[in-house]
């Protein structure tokens, strides 16, 4: 989770780059209307129902601009929030509040949107054996935030990056010459603690992957009947993962096939933001 130490180690540079993107030389509007330091506060307001996520990130953006900034809230990441709810109050130099507002909200809205979408899909899988996974289809330089949001929403992370696990896909198979050869090469190269996952598109490829000793089989864009047959053949030999055309509406049907995992790229590449805003900014006495 993004606690204070993890935040500073893994995300401060990214947050600073986001701020630099928005403030190349100065915030000319803020400097014009607020030329001197002035303590102030603003409310963080929720404008639709959802799962809040990224409160620490929201706070950290303002801390990078003003080390006296503080955020007071009774909410925590993962809480269900309602339209019209005041999430908390951000305090700091008014100039920092004005200059950091959009960057802080961009992160919070994006992360909350992902957590909300993930929560909806996880609810569909309640009582089912199948677990929901994300993918590497993330926004460049946003992966740490987006995969964290999936966890907050109740989902699970697939491999974090290319160093994190072996997933042999169609082009890897093409490069190696066959599924069997690709698995053999991976088994020789990788540490013994690594599992090997193979993406297959047909039942013949499934059989080849099972014979080669793959640990996990990704069933890519198979129809329901093919998936049922694939799960039956893999039973006791390898775990199975459904990938491709995964939607909220299809989740229960996919889970009933019996796959161990279902991965959904839409969690991070297509989740709509959750509408949040900073309102009621006013000066406060020092």
Describe the structure.
The protein has 286 residues and is an alpha/beta fold. The chain is 44% helix and 20% strand. The protein has twelve helices and twelve strands. The strands form three sheets. The protein has a six-stranded parallel β-sheet. α4 (55-65) runs antiparallel to α5 (94-124) and α8 packs parallel to α9. It is elongated, with a radius of gyration of 23 Å. It starts with a helix and ends with a strand.
Distance between the termini: 34 Å
Q: How would you classify the quaternary structure?
A: single chain
Report the total helices: 12
Overall average residue pLDDT:
95
Instruction: Please give the share of residues in helix.
Output: 40-55%
The spatial strand order of the largest sheet comes to: 6-11-10-9-8-7
Radius of gyration: 23 Å
Order of helices and strands: HHHEEHEEEHEHEHHEHEHEHEHE
Portion of residues in beta strands equals 15-25%
